[in-house]
Amino acid sequence: MFNLPKPHGGKLAALLNNDKLPTTEKLRVEHAIEHYNQWLETLKNISGDLKVMPEMVSHLTSYKRYIDVELIFDSETDFLYRQKGQLKLDNSIIEEFIPILVTTVFADSLKDKELSFGPTQCFSSLRFESSLKTSPPGGGMSIRSKDQDLQ
């Protein structure tokens, strides 16, 4: 129904192809990618309304714990732990999960709607730069936008 972004999958693939990743970690990252694909398949097979939310959150918690503890923290090298903030493996899990959750729980309400999910540029603020002395066209209206990872 929706073409959902896969930021976490992209981060895992980039990590596997990272030249600085210790060779001892490659097998563990490959296993994490398999675990990721299983997680996505499990979420894909869940359908329903608000009643499925606890089940989906349970799968999220289990997967996130696997990445945080088994992949990153339990590593014999400290590469993944030291690079945690740079790699953003843990943050991207939530970023990928939220659109899956929304499109699953609200599937009936969202069908036939033209929606997009994922990173985009969004409206941030509206400002008028005019005064009593100057009256620029349109009242000096200025629109600002901001890049968002999740919309």
Number of distinct helices: 7
Helix content: 40-55%
Gross geometry:
flat
Strand-residue proportion: 5-15%
User: What is the straight-line distance between the termini?
Assistant: 17 Å
Counted up, domains total 2
Could you explain the architecture of this structure?
With 151 residues, this protein is mainly alpha-helical. The protein has two domains: 7-110, no CATH class; 120-151, no CATH class. The chain contains seven helices and two strands, in the order αααααααββ. A two-stranded antiparallel sheet has the order 1-2.
Concise account of the structure shown:
The protein is mainly alpha-helical and 151 residues long. It has helices spanning 7-16, 23-44, 53-73, 79-82, 84-87, 89-105, 107-110; strands spanning 120-128, 141-148.
List the keywords.
single chain; 151 residues; mainly alpha; two-stranded antiparallel ribbon; 7 helices; 2 strands; 54% helix; 11% strand
